[in-house]
Amino acid sequence: MQTQKPSVSLIRAKSYEQDALKESLETLLEPLGGMAAFVKPGNRVLLKPNLLTGSRPTKECTTRPELVRAVAEMVIAVGGNPFLGDSPAFGSAKGVAIANGLLPILEELKLPLVEFHGKRYQTVNDNFNHLLLSKEAMEADVIINLPKVKSHMQLTLTLGVKNLFGCVPGKMKAWWHMESGKDANKFGEMLVETARAINPTLTILDGIIGHEGNGPSGGEPRNLEILAASSHVFALDRAILEVLQVAPTQVPTVAASQRLGICPELSDIHFPNLSPDLLQITDWQLPDKLMPIDFAMPRVIKSTFRHLYIRFIKEPMSAYIKPPIR
After folding, report:
1. Residue 194 needs a FRET pair 20 to 30 A away by CA distance; which of 35, 131, 163, 319 works?
2. DSSP codes, 92-146
3. pLDDT tens digits along 183-195
4. pLDDT, tens digit (0-9, with 9 covering 90-100), for 44-99
5. Which of 32, 3, 5 is closest to 265 using CA atoms?
6. Residue 222, phi-psi category: left (phi > 0), alpha (psi -120 to 50), beta (remainder)
């Protein structure tokens, strides 16, 4: 029996102005069946933006509030019940959301904003036999992943898969950076397994303005004028690499998804709107150099990591990683 190709919808989109953005999103989702194909009346729908930081609100480090609003309105229009959630490594989701201009949208649309709490979930990977993930995400009826196109000083690029790291409880992310952050390939594989376990229903990528250079927060805005959407987050990330002309081997999350056999070849992806070659960027700026993102223990302690780890997790990290065979 022939397997249907995953679809990645790619379009030009030049504006965050609300009417124009709504029209762009409708065009983007139309070949995928529209929002109604993903959200049914009564569904609890997690909107998972990139809420990395509140410290650089004008530098396009986070998913634009306008996109969050437009997607939330589309969910409400088909009878869904959206709520917003993320787990910044440092600081609260509420604090970062307010700093990035989301408060008026939360109030106007009556969107709940939840802080994530962890629960262990099994995986099928020999290196990570289970992962601590947000129960609020895992128990949602629908997850709409809303990443930002950004360069990344450890992972080269952060796209749909990396954005789902926000479904790992905040202080556990700091621990993962200490454990896996020194090894980008291992870290990439963990991120892929996180994305596979969460299995977002739909990913809509904010690429109208991206963030290039020394990301995920130290770079600069860059006009890309693209939106992308897919129910297959690994196919979407692969397609965006083609747009930015970055080799899959340079991006640990994509390389890991290919090794694990869950990332399709470009020729096996269906593009119902524009194809990546029509959107290519010739001079996207990657980081000056790649380096480990390694949260030193003093910083983690200062952010109350040790307190939360001892009090709430109460498990050694070795429980989360299968020991090597000796």
Report:
1. 35
2. -HHHHHHHTT-HHHHHHHT--EEE--EEEEE-S-SS-SEEEEEHHHHT-SEEEEE
3. 788 889 989 999 9
4. 999 999 987 766 777 888 899 999 999 999 999 999 999 999 887 667 888 888 88
5. 5
6. beta
